[in-house]
Amino acid sequence: GKMFVLLICILILQDVHTACVVVNVCPENTTVQAEIVDVHNAFRRAVEPSAADMLMMVGYELGENLFFSSSPSSWTSVISAWHFEKSHYRYPNGSTNGQPIGHYTQVTTVYTGLMLSMLLFFLFLFKLKLGNFKRWPPYKVGTSCASCPNNCVDNLCTNPCPYINRFINCPKLKVTNGCNNPLVYAWCPASCKCTTEIVPIY
C-alpha cells in the first residue's frame, strides 16, 4: 500500500516542473523555498518543552508530509496545519487523545531536510532523515542549544553529523559493545564518528 502510493508520488513528481503554474506556491521559486524553511525553523525554535538539540533546517532532501486542498494554499498555511497537530501531542509520550501527530513530529524532529513539490492542489513535502518513530521523542529536552553551545544560531543548532546510523539503537550498541567492534563501527558511523555534532534520530 505505502510503496504503491510512494511510487505514484514519484511518478507524479517527474511532471511537477511543468505542472507548477501557481508561482507563489511553486517550490522552484527561491522566495517560496525561503518561506518554507523560515516557517519550519520558526516552529522548530518554539517547541515546548524547549529543545537542546534542534537543528536549523536547511536544504532539500527526501521524506514526506502531504496536504490536500480544494484551492491553492500558501506554504505557511500548509505548515501551520501540520503544526496544529501539536494540540494532540505531549512530549515525549505522543498523542494525548489518539488523534494524528505525525505531521507535527516531522516538523519538529531534530533534523529535517526538505525537497518540495506541488501538483494541482496536492502539496508534497518530502523529507529525509525524519526520525519519526513511535515511542521515540522527536528531540532532546533542554535549554535551547544546550547540546551545541558553540554552534547555535537563533536558538537552533548548526552542527549536524554528516553520517547516518543504520539502526535506531546505535547509542546503546556503542555503550555496550564500543566502536572498536567492527559491526558497531560499520552500522553506527554517526554515533562513532560524531562526538561534538548533533546526531539526528533516523
- Average pLDDT: 76
Strand order of the largest sheet: 1-5-4
Number of helices: 8
Q: What's the N-to-C terminus distance?
A: 22 Å
Major beta sheet summary: 3 strands, antiparallel
> Rounded to an integer, what's the Rg over CA atoms?
18 Å
What is the helix fraction of residues, given as a range?
A: 25-40%
What is the CATH architecture descriptor of the largest domain?
3-Layer(aba) Sandwich
Low-confidence segments, given as residue ranges, are: 14-18, 113-130
The sequence of SSEs as H and E is: HHHEHEEHEEEEHHH
Return the CATH topology of the largest domain: Pathogenesis-related Protein p14a
Counting structural domains, the number is 2
CATH class of the largest domain: Alpha Beta
User: Would you tell me the structural class of the helices and strands?
Assistant: alpha+beta
